[in-house]
Design brief:
The chain is mostly beta strands and 171 residues long. It is globular and about 40 Å long.
């Protein structure tokens, strides 16, 4: 089975609009702002992008909003825990997104105001690597964040940055 999300940008109204999809395909309606898809190790599918997270338990046939927690970046570790990032918050969920803990309350060294754009986890499941847009300097920066809390470390210098735009396409 395949999950197709087909949309076209409507220049006149500045919004994405659903397309009918390929012949014989069924198009499933999802949230307007959803741009990212994460397939969990148990086969569930999560849709997210700076808004509530939606979950499918039937291989993409239907989606239900989990709750009203806004998550832009999302990753699953090897044990099934979820970590997410959004405006001024790093989240952790032990129940596939039903409930979220504000991990950033246990972390020092993060920017005062930031937006979590990308997130990854190391192979030992002990540190997150988060690309955070830091509003105080108007650019993105990479941080290493312990999953149990503690001091975050900014990875500096950033040798992969060819320009100083502050944005990374993929992590």
């Amino acid at each position: 089975a395949f999950l197709f999300c087909l949309f076209a940008w409507n220049i006149s109204n500045g919004q994405w609009e659903a397309l009918n999809g390929p012949p014989g395909a069924e198009v499933v309606g999802i949230a307007d702002r959803t741009q990212k898809i994460l397939k969990l190790s148990d086969g569930k599918i999560l849709l997210h992008s700076g808004g509530p997270v939606y979950r499918s338990t039937d291989n993409g046939t239907s989606f239900a909003k989990i709750d009203d927690t806004y998550v832009n970046a999302l990753i699953e570790d090897a044990s099934g825990l979820l970590y997410g990032a959004d405006y001024n918050v790093i989240y952790k969920s032990v129940d596939q997104g039903d409930n979220w803990t504000n991990l950033s309350l246990l972390v020092t060294g993060l920017p005062a105001q930031y937006y979590g754009e990308h997130i990854a986890i190391d192979q030992s499941n002990t540190n997150l690597f988060a690309w955070l847009y830091d509003y105080s300097v108007e650019r993105g920066r990479l941080y290493k964040i312990p999953v149990v809390g503690g001091a975050a470390t900014r990875i500096d210098p950033e040798p992969w940055m060819e320009t100083n735009t502050g944005f990374v396409n993929n992590m």
